[in-house]
Amino acid sequence: MTDAAVITPRALTREQVASYLGLSPSAVSDWQARGLIPGPIPGTRRWDRVAIDRAMDRISGLSNGDEAEDDFSAWRRANGH
């Protein structure tokens, strides 16, 4: 018997965002109003999980990966790629 893969949807409802972040739905609205996390995707009632992750990385002081991309770009330029 194999275990089925669990796929986390990329587009989340407010309730799913709250669960994902360990917040109440009203706290999600508060964090959004305070600019800590982005609002829903324009024209929808769904939040982008990746945008939420990036916002959390930023407010937690974690790297967002841009440094590695910049280093790679510099290496490519230095090596004629």
From TrEMBL:
This is Helix-turn-helix domain-containing protein. Residues 61-81 are annotated as: Disordered.
